[in-house]
Amino acid sequence: MSALLRQRLRRDWLQLLLWILATVLMAYAGFAGVTQSYATLKDRVDVLAAVMANPVIMMFRGLPSGASQGQFLSFEILPWLTMLAALMSTFLAVRHTRGDEEAGRAELVAATPAGRALPTVATIIHGIAANVVLGVLVALALLGSKLDASGSWLMGATSATTGIVFLGIGLIAAQLMRTSRGANALTVWILVGTFLINGIGNVAGTPSDDLTRITSSGLVWASPFGWAEQARPYDADAWAPALLGLAAGLVLALLAALLQSARDLGEGFIPARPGRVHAGPALSTPHALVWRLTGGAIIGWAVGGALTGVLATRLSGLAGQISGQNPAVQQILDKIGRAGNLEETVVTVFFTMMGILAACAAVQIVVRARQEEAHGTAESVLSRPVGRVRWLLDYLLVATFAIAIIVVAAMLAAYAGLAGNAHASSLAHVVTVVGLGQGLAACVFTALTALVFVLLPRGTIGVAWALVLLATVFGLFGPLFGLPEWTTRFSPFAVTPIVTNGGADLRGTWWLVLVVALGAAAALSLMRRRELQTAG
């Protein structure tokens, strides 16, 4: 057991370090943002009232439980702390179960005295330990901000137990699906679905007379995110919902172990769809093969982009109405969007989120090249008259086209959402400038992921996703949390063109173009000299 745990720690230490540091940084910076941006009780009350007045915004925020500093901090950041813990845990679970089976490592370990069961037990212990460390450090960061000890420890505990729930979900998905890609996709969809269920449960709840607190509907109990929020740190400090998450995670982990004992190695309970005996003309080139492998994911990301685009323009008018009664809303959005009037700022903020979606799609596609290499399937392609540079270039091209598809989907949906808007012309200009700029920011991650893939193949997945995570924290949440301006400029999402006073401010456009060009060129050039590394 100890050897298996050491092996997992050697493989994961960098990825876990980045996930945990990002989560702790969000907790610490969140308190700084609350104290700087919402220094008075009136500021916090105004924001809570504004959020409750808009059900769509309410769906994507935490549960209002009061207007004190600690209560408002929980409302601001608890959903994101739990989401980071959930993502870390699901990827960890799939990587050490289904991922090891795909790479052939599980079969080798099963041939030793460890057998088939012990590696799964080691993965469970490893995942729980990672979440405990994350929870303790989050609590210590909040305690260091001189917040109440009971609420701080509960914030850390709910973050950790939500991660443990999704550790169990990831282990179950690894048993159901036949590939790690399918298992990861299933867990992400469950994560998004349960997050939305919790949001709907909060929206359907009953607000208090002073508009600082919501009593959620019973629907929230169908979501692990709802369990975390019902703990109400710095308010009721209820530990029972947090313990519910821990119990659910352990039950799911036990169920995953039982499922593993009932299936053959390499198989899944959900069978893979049979493929065609002969490839059609559309699969006659390596480039077409990349499209075939990634097409479903691109469609999913494009739908997300379109939803973000229509929300950007439909909510811009509602935000203007809310800000007339709550000036604090204007201040919040100004810090993130840095654009002109409030409607333009709302569009800018939503399209920043679209840029993050596009970057995630690009990273997923380029990471697919690493997965093909690690699984040995890239060798079959490269045994044909296809060079390594051409092979990698196909992934970069498809990733770039995917970004374009997502951006266009978001822009078209945003234009459609402007129907009937009195400021449609000016907002359409904002959509165009900001949408294209965020597409360029997403291309930065295409180039950087390719460069990491060439230089550090085994770290491709962890490092690439960590770069997106850090850029999101600094670019989207940095201004809100009061981080220095120079730190936010490290994020490509924060230096893209915006519209100010009717004109376009290009800001860091040329730097982004330079990074994309040099990163892609360096990756393709270095790929000529790199040997394939099939070991995961």
Quick structural gist:
With 536 residues, this protein is mostly helical. The chain has helices at 2-37, 41-52, 55-59, 69-95, 98-103, 105-110, 117-144, 149-176, 180-203, 224-230, 240-261, 286-325, 327-337, 342-375, 377-382, 388-417, 424-455, 460-477, 485-488, 509-527, and strands at 206-207, 214-215, 498-500, 503-505.
Structural write-up:
It contains 20 helices and four strands. The strands form two sheets. A two-stranded antiparallel ribbon has the order 1-2. A two-stranded antiparallel sheet has the order 3-4. By secondary structure, it is mainly α. The chain has two domains: 265 residues, no CATH class; 246 residues, no CATH class. 74% of the residues lie in helices and 2% in strands.
How many domain modules? 2
The total beta strand count reads 4
Low-confidence stretches: none
Strand content: under 5%
| Overall pLDDT score | 85
The global form is globular
Write down the Rg.
23 Å
Side-by-side strand order of the widest sheet: 1-2
| End-to-end gap | 21 Å
The biggest sheet amounts to: 2 strands, antiparallel
The computed structural class is mainly alpha
Q: What is the N-to-C succession of helices and strands?
A: HHHHHHHHHEEHHHHHHHHHHEEH
How many helical elements? 20
Fraction in helix = over 70%
Key words describing this protein structure:
two-stranded antiparallel ribbon, 2 domains, mainly alpha, single chain, 536 residues, 20 helices, 4 strands
List the helices and strands and how they pair.
Blueprint: H1 2-37, H2 41-52, H3 55-59, H4 69-95, H5 98-103, H6 105-110, H7 117-144, H8 149-176, H9 180-203, E1 206-207, E2 214-215, H10 224-230, H11 240-261, H12 286-325, H13 327-337, H14 342-375, H15 377-382, H16 388-417, H17 424-455, H18 460-477, H19 485-488, E3 498-500, E4 503-505, H20 509-527
Helix pairs in contact: 1-4, 1-7, 1-18, 4-7, 4-8, 4-9, 7-8, 7-11, 8-9, 8-10, 8-11, 10-11, 12-13, 12-14, 12-16, 13-14, 14-16, 14-17, 14-18, 16-17, 16-20, 17-18, 17-20
